[in-house]
Amino acid sequence: MERWVEEVELLEEDFRRLVRGCQTMDRVWTSLSNSTVSPRYVDPTIPSTIAIIPSNGHRAYALQKAAMFRKMAVISNRALTDAGGG
Q1: How far is CA 17 from CA 21, 23, 34, 57, 70, in A?
Q2: Is 66:30 a contact under the CB 8 Å cutoff?
Q3: Lowest CB count within 10 Å: 18, 33, 53, 66, which one?
Q4: Residue 85, Ramachandran bin (φ over 0: left; ψ between -120 and 50: alpha; else beta)
Q5: In this predicted model, what pLDDT tens digit does every residue of 40-85 receive, in sequence order?
């Protein structure tokens, strides 16, 4: 019985980690969507002082990813709560 209880506790903690991870990724992608500078790619022809402004497509992609992780966090949290976890 103790092993069963331990397994339930481990599963609940995994769910909590999943929720926190999704929330973190939501914040990361939201932050990237608001960024004025996109990541620099190694290109010897572009001086390192030049910043590349992200296009609307990059911003839309980042917002889509943020929304996906936000939805995953909500669904996972609801599943944990519905299963009796806390």
Answers
A1: 6, 10, 26, 31, 14
A2: yes
A3: 53
A4: beta
A5: 555 556 555 455 566 788 889 999 999 999 999 999 999 999 988 7
